[in-house]
Amino acid sequence: MDPIRNPYAPGAGQRPPELAGRDEQLTAFDVVLERVARGRPERSLVLTGLRGVGKTVLLNALRSAAVRKGWGTGKLEARPDQSLRRPLSSALHQAVRELGHPEPTETDHVLGVIRSFAQRDAGADAKLRDRWSPGIDAPVVRGRADSGDVEIDLVELLTDVGGLAADVGKGVAVFIDEMQDLGTDDVSALCAACHELSQNGLPVIVVGAGLPHLPAVLSASKSYSERLFSYQRIDRLSRDAADRALVAPASEEDAEFTTDALAAMYDATRGYPYFIQAYGRAVWDLAPRTPITADDVAVAAPEAEEELAVGFFGSRFERATPAERDYLRAMADAAGEEPDDPVGSVATADVAVVLGKKPQSLSPARDALLKKGLIYSGERGRIAFTVPHFGRYLRTQG
Length: 398
Known about the structure:
This protein has 398 residues and is α/β, with parallel strands linked by helices. Helices cover 53% and strands 10% of the residues.
């Protein structure tokens, strides 16, 4: 098969040629956009799932839907070592520009509030990069979104942005990837702001994406967050959707899969979108002709597994220290071969048993892995990999 015409695209956040299995989320979001634009009450949205299930891709697709409706949009990726102020300000700056409010005075006022919010933590001796808001020429608005209390400031900021959007009969959507990495104070402020906005009926929503424990992070911050957001678990694709993710792009290039080949592909990928793209690319490059057969899948499997071992699993494993790698291997051994539990959920006490150590002595390694996003804790006393089949990969490494 011609590699130049290979339609499959394994990549971090890279949209696949066929966004299969997400029609329900896209349709539901269109309803949210229409309701909010008409002043109807609606909750913000949170997408959760493992690495490689397509959360970022879906987040981008939802943003595109908002843009098509004429909304102002902005996106940021949360980082554990970064305050929310500057990245959110950049996202809202873009959203305000997209709104295209006809009154420059009103727009400049809101831009000045955004600048005020961004620069609040910068002291008199702050570096230029911390005092300057790229692209915002409007003067800082003193006494608005600059109290120093991020909860108060964020409420004021989003209220002003929402008012600007309401003036032109549109809305603003802020998209936050890796939302679980927000600081504690920032999470609390974001929840409070969303609560205030919903009570006042302002057309601003937050769409967040994160790991499976994100709902617990939000709930720990504000008890009402369970009612504040609409939570959607993004999981692996059904057999039909997985087949469509392979067949539709192939048909565009005048190629097809046999029924047995599609079955073999699902057995190999288990429906995980990233795996589908990795196997799809390898099979296409190695198959001699169309239709692609189950034998072609078998021949290409080692190359696909090598791609995943290096680019998907290995790159994450390399981020861990020796002690953390020992902890990860112990998790894999404690979980064992459980085909129905691809995340390898285990009790922390069982990991300690495998390593022959007291659980308390392993806390530093566990906490570091949690911060690096390699594992998560969905419930007290239990941990799991953030990457599907990571345990299986570790067991094959010896």
